[in-house]
Q: What sequence folds into this?
């Protein structure tokens, strides 16, 4: 099992095929100058030996690096979402023979200038994130997962989940289950997806003549800030449903509500705007929006590949694609079981 | 914000500095042949313009790609662990100016032969994983996160957590809290870390004259298989503590135990061998082993860099480093609070 052998070289292919290195190279690259019989023999031998041409050299020649850089936010409370989305990105990249590299968080200075990539994917850009500004300034083709939150920024493309629709669906579900005073707990960090959920929550409240109750949480100290916000909502007394924007926050709401003697799924309904495996494992399971992160990641990479291939001129209007989402109902909102 | 400009070229640096391209190149690479005054002027201008030499070309010259490939297992029930470990790998890679790429899962055939990297990190290799075999056969320097489970396989280095120590610590803690018949729920997938936990569990049982109770779960269908195993353990009647090997599995144990009318932290103690944010958010919080995944990832990358720099000959004995771990006590094992 532990056989270690260096990569096969062009020289080995040439020697085995008993042709010159130049002839082997011509045969492999499909250039004229060798007979068809030689070409077939060289291809056959290269395949048998497992020869792969030096990718770095090939990429340099085609003036493409073959690399897509991916930037994930640093303080992520929905780690499983990003892991799944990253797997989706890598799966889709492979179809185009692209390699995915991850942009590091640590340095806020020089190294970004060296980013050696054909294009860039930024997942969930946050408004306060200086690295996002600096990445955009590199001039590479960029696709964002969810929109850029700053109207002065622009990307070549964006993949967006319809958070407005799922937010209304959850609030309507609360309502029809008898919970008429829903509150939301949203990150202080400003991202397009959380801002659109807040907006649709406020719209919904206006339509239903309910005063909006918005409390905050911070990605840095998710448990403590969520528990504090939950206490504030529950001490008020009227709150009968809480939509927590992240999966981790929803779990912290549930823990705090139990300490307050509230019964989740009965006298307090809870939902999360992002699903994660944990929300189905806990008891009661927590209703949440399945954002299909693996599929979402694939769509991001696919859109970037299309943009790279199209060589379209940068315009102010990004190409926009919508990703499918679905509310998964569980016992935390009164569903039977699961 | 949305300024897009192409990267600065050597030509632009040379023109701005009013020297030939060759002179600019010599100055930037520190070669003799230009005056110190010219060299200083060129460096100054290159810095002002934000010039970065073409990394692909430079790497090719130094016969290094500057790329480290990372392989993560496909069916991961502990997604936040791998996400954190990956962030740690990327952070540490940056210190050595290395780029991290992720090996895709989808294709089980040709593309691995093309892997263009100086070295390879494999996290939690599983015994049945054909991709691991094929990656090892590439002949690249490899560091594994946790050991290779197959004694016929070998890597240049490995970073290992002391699962034996933490397993004994948890079982002793169960015991001193009055739970004398602990069971474990372990993945059917064979990995070195889970195998070492099973071994130390069996050792502990022998020392305490207890019959081992080992049930299984599958990463593919974690919730259902864990719930099934939990039911089997609870119907038996004597089981008073369960160590679940993954964080997701521990949550599923807790949900199933509640349905069975057991009170977690009181008449049933629960712990997980891998911590995750969710385990601290739920009520009661679940005791778990903090494997310090971000630090673990950094250690993996650091060890690989040392191996690459040392140019040591491949030997059968991998360089081994131990990563620090700690049991985090929460209410699921009777701890006061949190």
A:
């Amino acid at each position: 099992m532990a056989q270690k052998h260096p990569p096969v070289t062009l020289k080995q292919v040439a020697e085995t095929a008993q042709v010159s290195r130049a002839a082997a190279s011509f045969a492999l690259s499909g250039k004229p100058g060798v007979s068809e019989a030689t070409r077939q023999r060289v291809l056959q031998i290269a395949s048998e030996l497992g020869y792969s041409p030096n990718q770095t050299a090939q990429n340099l020649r085609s003036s493409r690096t073959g690399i897509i850089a991916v930037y994930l936010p640093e303080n992520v409370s929905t780690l499983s979402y990003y892991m799944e989305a990253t797997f989706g990105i890598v799966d889709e990249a492979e179809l185009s023979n692209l390699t995915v590299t991850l942009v590091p968080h640590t340095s806020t200075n020089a190294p970004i200038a060296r980013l050696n990539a054909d294009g860039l994917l930024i997942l969930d850009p946050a408004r306060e994130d200086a690295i996002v500004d600096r990445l955009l300034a590199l001039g590479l083709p960029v696709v964002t997962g969810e929109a850029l939150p700053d109207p002065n920024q622009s990307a070549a493309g964006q993949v967006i989940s319809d958070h407005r629709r799922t937010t209304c669906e959850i609030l309507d579900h609360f309502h029809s289950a008898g919970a008429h005073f829903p509150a939301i707990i949203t990150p202080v960090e400003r991202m397009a997806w959380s801002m659109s959920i807040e907006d649709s929550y406020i719209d919904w409240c206006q339509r239903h003549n309910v005063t909006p109750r918005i409390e905050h949480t911070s990605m840095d100290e998710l448990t403590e800030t969520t528990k504090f916000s939950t206490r504030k909502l529950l001490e008020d007394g009227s709150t009968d449903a809480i939509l927590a924007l992240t999966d981790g926050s929803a779990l912290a709401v549930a823990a705090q509500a139990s300490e307050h003697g509230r019964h989740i799924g009965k006298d307090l309904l809870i939902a999360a705007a992002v699903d994660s495996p944990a929300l189905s494992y806990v008891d009661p399971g927590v209703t949440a929006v399945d954002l299909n992160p693996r599929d979402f990641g694939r769509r991001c990479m696919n859109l970037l590949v299309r943009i790279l291939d199209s060589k379209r001129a940068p315009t102010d209007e990004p190409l926009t694609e919508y990703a499918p989402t679905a509310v998964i109902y569980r016992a935390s909102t009164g569903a039977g079981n699961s």
About this structure: The two ends of chain A are 44 Å apart (CA to CA). Chain A has three domains: 10-53, 67-161+294-323, 163-291+327-333. Chain A touches chain B through 74 residues (CB under 8 Å).
